[in-house]
């Protein structure tokens, strides 16, 4: 699938663990990438794919699942529980992955999606 991914402005975060891509088997013919724990990086959100966090690295666009990004980088909140997601779906206010208040199908000022978008509820 060849789609255009529109990225939000960058947000600086620090890695909590080593981040590795294509370590076992490179699928794109490019060498594996490792970003060491404690490295400050810039990440982006996307309205095109609200389930992922994006990192530009050299000429590659690396992805992290937003549902577990809080375990890998700073600045992303832990996903809410089922009752909270249910409340968001009935209220006119939800939270984004970075903690901003927004509409249930909305994005924060930093481009971060609501948790309902991340989980495909909306």
Describe the structure.
With 122 residues, the chain is α+β, with helices and mostly antiparallel strands. The chain has two domains: 11-71, no CATH class; 82-118, no CATH class. The protein contains two helices and eight strands, in the order E-E-E-E-E-E-H-E-E-H. The protein has helices spanning 82-90, 115-118; strands at 11-14, 19-21, 33-35, 40-44, 52-57, 60-65, 94-95, 101-102. The strands form three sheets. The chain has a four-stranded antiparallel beta sheet, with no helix packed on it. A two-stranded antiparallel ribbon has the order 2-3. A two-stranded antiparallel ribbon has the order 7-8. A hairpin with a 7-residue loop joins strand 4 (40-44) and strand 5 (52-57). The radius of gyration is 15 Å and the shape is elongated. 22% of the residues are buried.
Summarize the structure.
The chain is an alpha+beta fold.
Key traits:
122 residues, alpha+beta, 2 domains, two-stranded antiparallel ribbon, elongated
What proportion of the residues is helical, as a percent range?
10-25%
Distance between the termini: 23 Å
> What count of helical segments does DSSP give?
2
In what order do the strands lie side by side in the largest sheet? 1-4-5-6
User: Helix/strand/pairing class, anyone?
Assistant: alpha+beta
Task: List strands and helices in order, with pairings.
Elements: E1 11-14, E2 19-21, E3 33-35, E4 40-44, E5 52-57, E6 60-65, H1 82-90, E7 94-95, E8 101-102, H2 115-118
Antiparallel strand pairs: 1-4, 2-3, 4-5, 5-6, 7-8
């Amino acid at each position: 699938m060849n789609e255009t991914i529109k990225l939000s402005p960058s947000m600086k975060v620090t890695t909590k663990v080593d981040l590795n891509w294509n370590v076992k088997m490179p699928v794109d013919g490019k060498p594996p990438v490792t970003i060491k724990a404690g490295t400050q990086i810039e990440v982006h959100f996307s309205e095109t794919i609200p389930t992922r966090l994006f990192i530009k690295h050299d000429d590659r666009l690396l992805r992290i699942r937003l549902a577990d990004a809080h375990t890998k980088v700073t600045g992303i909140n832990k996903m809410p529980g089922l009752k909270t997601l249910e409340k968001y779906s009935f209220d006119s206010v939800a939270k984004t992955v970075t903690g901003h208040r927004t509409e249930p199908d909305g994005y924060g000022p930093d481009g971060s999606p609501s948790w309902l978008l991340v989980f495909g509820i909306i």
